[in-house]
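Replying to the earlier thread about multi-chain prediction with a worked example.

Input:
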Amino acid sequence: MILPLRLDGVSFRDIIHPLSLEIESGPSTIILGANGAGKSVLMRLMHGLLAPSAGLVSWQGENARRKQAMVFQRPVMLRRSALENVLYPLRAAKTADADRIAREALAEVGLSQVAHRPARVLSGGEQQRLALARAWALHPEVLFLDEPTASLDPTATREIEAVIRAFDAAGTKVVMATHNLGQARRLGDEVIYLHQGRVLERASVETFFARPATPEAASFIKGELPWI
Amino acid sequence: MDLIRVVLAVLLGLAPPAQAQERYITVASTTSTEQSGLFRHLLPIFEKKTGIQVRVVALGTGQALDMGRRGDADVVFVHAKPLEEKFVAEGYGVRRQEVMYNDFVLIGPKSDPAKVARGKDAVRALQRIHQAKAPFVSRGDRSGTHFAELELWKAAGIDIGRDKGSWYRETGQGMGPALNIASGMNAYVLADRGTWLSFKNRGELTVAVEGDRRLFNQYGIILVNPAKHLGVKREMGQAFIDWIVSSEGQEAIAAYKIGGEQLFFPNAGG
Amino acid sequence: MIDGILGDPRLWDIVVLSLAVSLSAVAIAALLGLPLGAALAVTRFPGRRAIIVLLNALMGLPPVVVGLAVYLLLSRAGPLGSLGLLFTPPAMVIAQTILILPIIAALCRQAVEDAWAEYHEQLRSLGVEGARAALTVLWDIRFSLFTAVLAGLGRASAEVGAVMIVGGNIDGVTRVMTTAIALETSKGDLPLALGLGIVLIAVVLALNAAAYLVKEAAQRRYG
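Result:
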């Protein structure tokens, strides 16, 4: 069990000001904020893709590296078939029974029929689903998602959200950055609101949207959903 | 370092046929000799008889002898007696033997600005060329031909190193390029008869002076001294030398003709 | 005249040797240069930028200089003389490999560095780093690397300085297209030299066309 994740006085240049927080297992966490608030950088600090300028990022247990996965806004697929893209990290980790696991993952996201097509000719939505299948096959404890549907149309967005819900139902901790408030309400249990590199609020989804505690949060919600 | 061995094996596999079994010698000779076509005529006879492949690297006489000094050739076959004798005296060669001679010809434009055409005296001709400041192309490359040209200037009493003007052009290249340049410039040039006979880009050039004994061009063959370099192929090299001075080799040399004209006159045993 | 040239069996020996030497050099240079370029693209160490500048500069290495250096190495009077490689096709392959290695490595480095920006975060997230990640990227951008390899092949088949010096232009043994053209030109047989030149260009063109078609077909398959 690698959670809870602790950030102690973590900062990154002038993008993230020193912050401390804990990510526990269980509720799906949405990191909300405007463009440029620092959501992507914070996600990368947590996932270990960036080293903090100061402070400490600590997981529990062993091998935390292998028990996380991340899906980016634009999926990066290798020039091979869909199935081979899912197999790639499994083989790198020398996972036993990789072929069966990969095929199950493809089935889970509904891509079995395109298993042998070149991944790069799939549609944007299909490639993003493939990225999720690739993450699923790793059976991670924590799944990070950085604006996963920002480049997709509504149909594809619904499909992706369905898969994310499946992850959550299977017990994976979901940590997702988005500026899509509807999505946050659909998928999230708690909200961490980021504004210019600082955590201004942290509350359950209902509380955050009903009674935002700070004026910045309030105007953010209004700006995104002006009819409230 | 197995990788190096594998790579070398791949590389060596390229030498047709496999390097280890191949019987060949490397002969350093001159561009004029090769370009006359003599080797294409001569070497297959020797190879058929002995199974030894003769690989000729054609350079200027000076460079050929340098190759011998470095041990990169097994035999040197050039035409500059004083340089050859020095080569042996310095211990780089075993023994010098005479093989054949051909002659040089003084080539010039049909317009003949120095008025030397149809003469029989090469030295007088050079004096007139110097006087008229007629364009003259020199090999300038330490070749046997270049060396012969320098000897003629000396015999003419002209210090060409000091007296050369813009009429005297040194090319630093082989006989072919020198003839090309002379053809392009309508200049005089000293050439060996063999290259002249097979030269195709004559333009306005023709033979101006020939037959002077001082245009006589002697070839010598020398085995590179195996004591100086371990890799020299002594036996096969000596076999080639022995063959070329033998009656069979000498007859083969005499038999080589271009357009019915004999190019080289065998005189081994001298 | 052209069918006179084409009918000469010696011509085809020369063409085959030219291809054998240059293609071998390209193969070895690719084997060494692609990983080198990739490694240079993804690692960071003091002096890295200086090495990149040096590698780019070496793309312009004059063939005669390479020829001279290899000659001095392989000469019997030199350190590797006992290998007996001077004036043989392997010596020509060695010289050409040295000549085109910087071209392939430098162009590969640029391509990998550009691709690395796109790939490396995702690969790291998947638990793949370092050499393994670099090789994955290298393989994934293989079609772009084609051009780097073809650039090397072009340089090798066009040069005359290196192969002339280390090969000696020996009739029937180390005579290739470029040295044959140089020889015929120096002999004054310009029509023949020109004819050989046309044959050389035709062969190189055919090679490039074939390479392009192969690349297109493969690209369609893999996206």
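Residues 15-20 of chain B have pLDDT under 50 and may be disordered.

Feel free to reuse this layout for your own posts.
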